[in-house]
Design goal:
96 residues; alpha+beta; Beta Polymerase, domain 2; four-stranded mixed sheet; 4 strands; 19% strand
Length: 96
């Protein structure tokens, strides 16, 4: 996993604060042999679509203030159906 311990901590705490949920890292950052790449995060949190959008915006803003403006993709499954990206994140993601 190519995230330092401080960044992992900030992401975990932000997910708990804004979603009350665990967060998973997926994508290229889970492979130590690769370089670069954005931070792909996945959260499952049963809530309305409007709440999910508000929480997503708040969490990203908070993370930018804590770890700097980095390319972060935050995928939120708020219970509105199954998508291929959700399956990918669950199958290959690592819980932070």
């Amino acid at each position: 996993m190519r995230l330092d311990s401080r960044t992992r901590h900030e992401i975990r705490e932000s997910a708990r604060r804004f979603f009350g949920a665990d967060v998973y890292l997926f994508g290229s950052r889970t492979d130590d042999a690769k370089r670069g790449g954005d931070i792909d995060l996945y959260i499952e949190a049963p809530m309305s679509a409007a709440e999910a959008v508000r929480s997503r915006i708040a969490m990203l803003g908070h993370l930018y203030s804590r770890i700097g403006e980095r390319k972060i993709d935050l995928v939120v499954n708020s219970g509105g159906g199954e998508r291929p990206i959700f399956r990918e994140a669950r199958q290959h993601g690592e819980k932070l």
